[in-house]
Specification:
Blueprint lengths: L2 E5 L4 H13 L3 E6 L14 E5 L6 H10 L2 E4 L6 H6 L1 H10 L2 H10 L2 E5 L31 H18 L3 E7 L2 E2 L16 H11 L3 E4 L5 E3 L1 E2 H13 L8 E5 L5 E3 H12 L3 H9 L2 E4 L1 H4 L15 H7 L7 H11 L4 H5 L4
Parallel strand pairs: 1-2, 1-4, 2-3, 4-5, 5-6, 6-11, 7-10, 8-13
Antiparallel strand pairs: 9-12
Helix pairs in contact: 1-8, 2-5, 4-6, 5-6, 7-9, 7-10, 9-13
Length: 346
């Protein structure tokens, strides 16, 4: 019976992973977060142990539970592009500095550290597929603070790799645009406050204009969260130690669509739902510049496709959810919240 520590347990990945662990294994979940709204239904479970806290404050609790548990997943991070541009120091302080003591504790107590790297770590690589072992990591100039997130994550990857050279049992996983219910709040109308799919969904629900940054030609490989969690479960299990010392892209190269195509797919699907159709009819699509939308410090990646051969081979894993099904699952999940979202138009 594994004891799994999930820091950021109420987050997008954290709450989906906790739900899967409790439903399909005999593992114990020890979770910390500042909120518990996404995991309310799990709090009464006998194998769910939740502590309301902050990794930057409750450091003794964190270290005690790193020592107590078998597997450590530090999932606390800022991962919204608008914050990279507007508050880069906050991103560095939380994503790198606050997580470094956790990494060191995992090394000190000999635990399996499963750390969330990011698809952004590849930056503006020109490779057709991003290869965790061979792709070069390409970032823009210092006056583009958008890259502080990728840079902080890359540095943490390198630190963890260094601890691995000294015996740390680690696995790095790089999520490629995981999507699903609970990604961000659809009730937040502010531009750039959430990731693209949630942003578009909120606009559709409220009948607002959708802005395509720089025309929306940039592509992303979208991955349904259930597929991502499947991979994580296999990494946690770590059968025959196969995942130790590995870097895994966890993404679906088949679901590679432009942001413009995403908007069109979502509007078409919304028209099929009585709850969403009226809002969708009011939506207009406009183009805007990245400078106007995010600020002058933004740069984008035109294509971001994962190479997943080692993820498939080592873990016996493959993504199975196509884009149409992924979007439908999300639309189904929010059917009961439409009125609440509509009431939040600024």
């Amino acid at each position: 019976m594994k004891k799994v520590l999930i820091l950021g347990v109420n987050g997008f990945i954290g709450h989906h992973l906790s739900k899967r662990i409790l439903a399909t294994t005999d593992w114990e979940v020890y979770g910390m977060d500042m909120n518990s709204d996404r995991i309310t239904e799990l709090l009464g479970h006998p194998r769910m142990h939740f502590f309301e806290g902050d990794i930057t404050i409750n450091k003794e609790w964190v270290e005690y539970h790193v020592k107590k548990c078998d597997v450590i997943l530090p999932l606390v991070a800022i991962a919204t592009p608008s914050t990279y541009v507007q508050a880069p120091l906050r991103v560095f302080e939380l994503d790198f500095e606050a997580n470094l003591p956790i990494v060191r504790s995992a090394a000190k107590y000999g635990k399996h550290l499963i750390f969330p790297s990011t698809s952004e770590v590849y930056g503006m690589s020109q490779d057709a597929e991003f290869d965790p072992e061979n792709s070069e990591l390409v970032y823009g100039p210092i006056n583009k603070p958008r890259w502080i997130y990728a840079c902080a994550k890359q540095l943490m990857d390198r630190v963890i790799w260094g601890y691995g050279m000294e015996g740390l049992n680690f696995t790095l996983f790089r999520p490629f645009n995981w999507i699903g219910a609970g990604l961000d709040s659809i009730h937040t109308p502010k531009e750039g406050s959430s990731r693209v799919l949630t942003q578009f969904f909120g606009h559709i629900v409220r009948g607002e204009t959708i802005s395509l940054v720089d025309g929306g030609a940039q592509k992303r490989a979208f991955t349904y969260v259930d597929d991502g969690v499947d991979a994580l479960m296999r990494i946690i299990e770590n059968k025959d130690g196969k995942a130790t010392g590995q870097i895994y892209n966890v993404g679906n190269p088949v679901n590679n669509y432009s942001i413009r195509e995403l908007a069109a797919m979502m509007l078409k699907l919304a028209a099929e739902y009585p709850e969403y159709a009226a809002g969708a009819q009011k939506v207009q699509i406009v183009e805007t510049s990245s400078g106007a939308y995010y600020g002058a410090g933004y740069q984008d990646v035109q294509n971001r496709v994962p190479k997943i051969e080692n993820t498939r081979e080592d873990l016996g894993w493959a993504p199975t959810t196509g884009m149409a099904d992924a979007l439908r699952h999300i639309f189904d999940a929010y059917r009961g919240q439409v009125a609440l979202a509509c009431g939040l138009v600024e």
